[in-house]
Amino acid sequence: MEATRLSGRKILLIVGGGIAAYKSLELVRLIRKAGAQVQAVLTASGAQFVTPMSLAALTGHPVRQDLFLPDDETAMGHIELSRWADLIVVAPATAGLIGKAANGLADDLASTLLIATDKQALWAPAMNVRMWLHPAVQANVDRLKRFEGFHQAALIGPDDGEMACGEFGPGRMAEPAAILAAIDGLLAGAGGRSLAGRKAVVTAGPTFEPIDPVRGLTNRSSGKQGYAIAAALARLGAEVTLVSGPVALGAPTGVARVWVETATEMQAAVHAALPADIAVMSAAVADWRVDGVASGKIKKAPGGPPTLSLIENPDILAGVARAGPQRPALVVGFAAETADLAANARAKLSRKGCDWIVGNDVSDDVFGNDANAVTLFLKNGAEETWPRQSKTAVARALADRIAAHFSEPQ
Ligand code: CTP
What is the pLDDT of residues 361-391, one digit of tens each? Predict the structure, then answer.
């Protein structure tokens, strides 16, 4: 383990109640040895297993146990602690702490912090195997993992093994060295880079082009990839406007969503969001719209079905890439292809004038799926192929890549 990635970083450790709390003392030692600072919050039940004195001695900081302290003039200790931290680590994470955070309950310092923070939390669960496997706990863990944007949870463990209560199975807290490696990985994820102060506009979902008041042309885009990208950019601190066609998804935390239906509306909303530093156009814009939308419902007629006359929609991506002084510094498009991915993606890159194209192989039913295989094509000819991974992971990799781009000398 190289000390460099952790050195100078700030970890807020929440110690919950469980026999595994003693391992958190070792974790503090390892984190400090790697060069990071640690402050500890000890829950009331955590204090049944380790003393505030041990944690204070090992962290070199006072240990926080109370939400309200009479000598804390601002009564904002939880906010300050959350601002101070680069990463929050919950170890041991009890069923109680997981349940509170998953349901937005805040009744002590630890649970309030977990809701008040916009920092990522790494959870190291430790509990009796039956508790861990209980559907209520599993549902809460799933909820925690699904929160997008702020307060995105990462989990390590629990490990299988013999437990203090004599039972065997998943429930043991991960070993301190493994938790340290996970901390290192999370801090390295974005290379510690942020997009704070950057503005981004993201398009997502299909467009809906009306034929008459009850019918329309659309496609099967779920919007998942674009929503995940908006969430990932917000998570790195960007101010994100998400221009969304009709989809069944909630707006990610911290993202301003603008609903649109047609390509024309989407184009107007995107231009209204400029100037921006970053544009990621992931929407599946309908290529055509109906010329002369009927004002009333088109009825069946003896002469047979109506003939629809189509006109081409504006290319929103190409328009943004050629927006003159309003052009974002980085314009990213998608190429959804069923064949000849590289050739088609490269052709789109130059035709549309964008900087990067995320080439997306849709030959294998990507629409509505959670996994995605992509290759990033750069204007300078470089190419990066990413392993097949969840749409959330693709989004994070893209956001990290964007943050890295902005930290390179331009
Ligand atoms: N795009 C856009 N406006 C359009 C069509 C596409 O902004 N009217 C954007 C998409 O959001 C995506 C990229 O252009 O980022 C490529 O979309 P795709 O549908 O793959 O390309 P098309 O231009 O439709 O090309 P083709 O039909 O030849 O595949």
Answer: 877 665 556 677 889 999 989 888 887 788 8
Ligand 1 atom nearest to CA at 334: 15
Q: Is the CB of 263 under 6 A from ligand 1?
A: yes
Tokens at 322, concatenated: 């050629």
In the chain, CATH 3.40.50.1950 covers 10-187
Topology, domain 194-407:
Rossmann fold (3.40.50)
C-alpha 225 – ligand 1 centre gap (Å): 15
165 in active site: yes
How many Cα atoms within 13 Å fall on the side-chain side of residue 92?
A: 28
Bond from prior residue into 275 cis (ω within 30 degrees of 0): yes
Domain with CATH 3.40.50.10300 in the chain: 194-407
Q: CATH number of the domain at 10-187, please?
A: 3.40.50.1950
Tell me, using a 6 A CB cutoff, whether residue 96 lines ligand 1. Answer: no
Question: Which one from 165, 196, 272, 404 is the annotated catalytic residue?
Answer: 165
Report the distance separating Cα 93 and Cα 27, nearest Å.
14
Output the six-digit token pair for 233: 């950019």
Closest atom of ligand 1 to 286 CA is 8
pLDDT digits (tens, 9 = 90+) for 240-295: 999 999 999 999 988 999 999 999 999 999 999 999 999 999 999 999 999 999 99
